[in-house]
Amino acid sequence: MMDYSKTLRNNNKIYSRTSSHGQNQQYSSDFSLRFVFSGNERYDIGKRHLSIYPDSFLILNRGTQYSTDTDSSMPVQSFSINFDQQFLEDFKEYWAFTDNRLLTKSNYKQRQEFDETIYPFTGDIMYNVSHLKQYLDNGMHDELLINEYLTHCLINYFSIYNEEILKKAEKLHFLNQSTKIEILRRLNLAKEYLYSNYNQNISLEDLAEHSCLSVNHLLRTFKQAFNLTPHQFLIQLRLKRAQLLLKSTTYPINEVVNLIGFECSSSFIRLFKTHYKITPLKYRQIA
């Protein structure tokens, strides 16, 4: 594992860092994508406390003030891409006016900033970012190829944004578009809380208070947006985190159960097998 920072000729910047302990307070000078490849890193943005893991990532808009906190028993590998403002604007203009765009012209004009929330790190964006990191870790420096990776990362993010924000907002049963966007913003606060506190005992009342919604309103709209109840979403998230621990650590199964917030090993094993068609032990053997 190696640390590096790379500034390209077009002022795009890439950072890779490995640490176990540390705090850092700063602001984002550029639009950036933030990832971790092992462990987890906490971001404080105002009163919001967000933790990102290897199955998720965070975006920060230009000018956002934030602080990071790392306190982990295992090394935390963090990786971030900062996009130069002109590079980003050129890409947005290209993306908004292509025939196969996912963001419509109206959405492009109305939303100059993106939702600073936790997004799933999977599929094409995981493939591209992982290959970019491997390329840089190996000491390669071809800026043309690196910028191709960065362009594809933006394409991947815009696709995720379309799925996670625009399409989910359309699922909400409100007539007014601004109401849909506001309710989804609050639902994302609930989603962030689940992502960051998945191993805690979370009540519906806590979740509703954090998202500034009533319990009934939260239950109804969360299911509309995410096709899952908050409890179902939490169970799936815990199972995904169990996969990460089974794959990347040697913790005994009982310890994994405790770390992800389950109280009963037999319930965890049954749910894991039902969801993934394999027992946790066999999954660890082949992962």
Quick tags:
287 residues; alpha+beta; Jelly Rolls; Arc Repressor Mutant, subunit A; 3 domains; 11 helices
Task: Provide structural commentary.
- About 3% of the residues have low confidence.
- With 287 residues, the chain is α+β, with helices and mostly antiparallel strands.
- It starts with a strand and ends with a helix.
- Strand 1 and strand 2 form a beta hairpin.
- The protein folds into 3 domains: 168 residues, Jelly Rolls, CATH 2.60.120.810; 51 residues; 54 residues, Orthogonal Bundle (Arc Repressor Mutant, subunit A), CATH 1.10.10.
- It is 51% helix and 22% strand.
- Keywords: DNA-binding, Transcription, Transcription regulation.
Quick description:
The protein has three domains: 4-171, Jelly Rolls, CATH 2.60.120; 177-227; 233-286, Orthogonal Bundle (Arc Repressor Mutant, subunit A).
Residue share in helix: 40-55%
What fraction strand? 15-25%
Largest sheet: 8 strands, antiparallel
Please, how many helices?
11
Count of the domains: 3
- The geometry reads as globular
How many whole angstroms does the radius of gyration measure?
19 Å
* Gap from first CA to last CA: 21 Å
The CATH architecture of the largest domain would be Sandwich
Spans with pLDDT under 50 lasting ≥5 residues? 101-110
The overall average pLDDT, rounded, is 91
Following the backbone from N to C, one meets helices and strands in this order, namely: EEEEEEEHHEHHHHHHHHH
Please provide the count of β strands. Answer: 8
CATH topology of the largest domain: Jelly Rolls
Assign the CATH class of the largest domain: Mainly Beta
- Output the structural class: alpha+beta
Region (Disordered): 1-25
Organism: Mucilaginibacter pocheonensis
Domain HTH araC/xylS-type: 188-286
Pfam family, one: HTH_18
